[in-house]
């Protein structure tokens, strides 16, 4: 009965989602308080029913109910309990239920924590969020029902893809989904604002925490997936510009642009149309990623399905949602006149250039990802667009963005004194020059690495200069500087931490991409190989038994200058249920490098071995962690919890943007005063 209960709960959730998507929307248009009030209890009820369905599916996995087709196809009785849980979202049908559950979680959050929102705006946001949920519920029930029964039930299941039986992949999809689906909230805010005909600084303030939450979880999800690929796939790399990797990276780029654009909309009442468009396009790319992963167009370890009919459903939904939103934008955008004027050399100008570079970078990744698919569809010609294309286009396009990231926060709003900014960055110039000299002296190149590290030094020093100026370090007594630092808004702290994290991340990317040392050889016990100044001695090799796999495991003694550094134990596993091998790399991390050993197939009486010395790779994960911490710090800013000053007019007729903006500007001025 558990499967039937879950199926029925999804149907009831669909009914509630339809009610939530229609009644409050009509109520907001008619200024009917009772109809608008339906949104909140409907969102709560929808969350409860979807949670019930998700819990029923999870229970079926935990107890190994192989009469449920989804469980039989993706689980096994011998699988460890943690992977029985993660298998729920490690397949197409289960991942869609998980996606819908996260949609319901976000809807519940807006309903519970959106008390500062005007009634009409909250009703519209929840209604649009519900209509998105309707599409995914229909998709799940019609094409991807996770509760279908098997009769007779098999004795055991087919097991989960062994590549997904890993702690990194247990948490990577949930974080990625929270990022993807979180962009649906910013999309809902954008469409609600277009329907209302009103975008003002208060709206921008309300959108920022949802964008921050989505951006932070998307950052964590991408980083965790990259880390998994690094140690699980055994190829020694962390990013291959795989189309599915790009599908998650593109929304991240636009979410980053949206964060910065919303700041201008809030602080200066400018870039309103642009902010709305970014919110629409960021969620559009989330839907595009969902389509690519589930349509069968891509071959990747990340793909969930190869059923073209499912892909067509999602493609139609994408066209309907995004096409409708863009049509509404084309109709309403002329009404969204910006109020803030600024010079090109100003903080607003820097943020505009920041946005343009991020969007052009996203377009570059978009073209590189979809061009082979489009060419294949229309001409049948097969081409491959790989790392060389992205390294020669996207990577160098980010250089001016990183330079600007240090200079932008030093500029004043509206109009900046460029010579003054340059003078303040003198120490950043000096730091970059020192790094150039040191890098050439120690490493000698290549020039791409020299430039990359100098830019990282420039950025980090520029961030520190901006922070020192904010707390007036060395200009007032130290105690007063500490008090000023404690009084800085947490959103400003988040900006400083995030920009410093980017500098750390860039340092790791430069080192790992340019100075990797690798040896591929055949070794037997007693053999020694030197890589990166370390001696790797194979001590022994033998078979071990895991909970649902067998493995060959080797022991390597790693020494430097005769001193023991670590003992590494790489494995080559075999999962008998799916008759599939996996590689488990052994890694020893220091502050400056990773020592990375991969065990290959037997070669005669010996074994193939690959040993890497990967400089600065830990800085990649450290930089990503700093970015996530920055998003958390920013989210704790009290202004995000309280919201912007209340609008003078709680409900505005469509097209009343000019009057609403005047009221919003007056209220913001009084608040700042």
Question: Any overview of this molecule?
Answer:
This protein has 673 residues and is of the alpha+beta class. It folds into 4 domains: 1-165, Four Helix Bundle (Hemerythrin (Met), subunit A) (Up-down Bundle); 167-424 and 643-673, no CATH class; 425-515 and 619-635, no CATH class; 517-615. 64% of the residues lie in helices and 11% in strands. Strands 2, 3, 4, 5, 6 and 7 form a 6-stranded antiparallel β-sheet that branches. It has a 4-stranded antiparallel β-sheet with strand order 1-10-9-8. Strand 2 and strand 3 form a beta hairpin. The protein is globular, with a radius of gyration of 27 Å. The relative contact order is 0.09. The model is unreliable at 644-673 (pLDDT under 50).
Topology:
Blueprint: H1 2-30, H2 33-36, H3 39-62, H4 69-74, H5 81-86, H6 92-113, H7 119-143, H8 167-196, H9 201-232, H10 243-268, H11 272-295, H12 308-332, H13 347-379, H14 387-407, H15 418-424, H16 426-442, H17 447-471, H18 478-487, H19 490-514, E1 517-523, E2 528-531, E3 534-545, E4 550-560, E5 563-568, E6 571-575, E7 580-584, E8 586-589, E9 593-603, E10 606-615, H20 617-635, H21 638-642, H22 657-672
Antiparallel strand pairs: 1-10, 2-3, 3-4, 4-5, 4-6, 6-7, 8-9, 9-10
Helix pairs in contact: 1-3, 1-7, 3-6, 6-7, 6-8, 7-8, 7-12, 8-9, 8-11, 9-10, 9-20, 10-11, 10-13, 11-12, 13-14, 14-17, 16-17, 17-19, 19-20
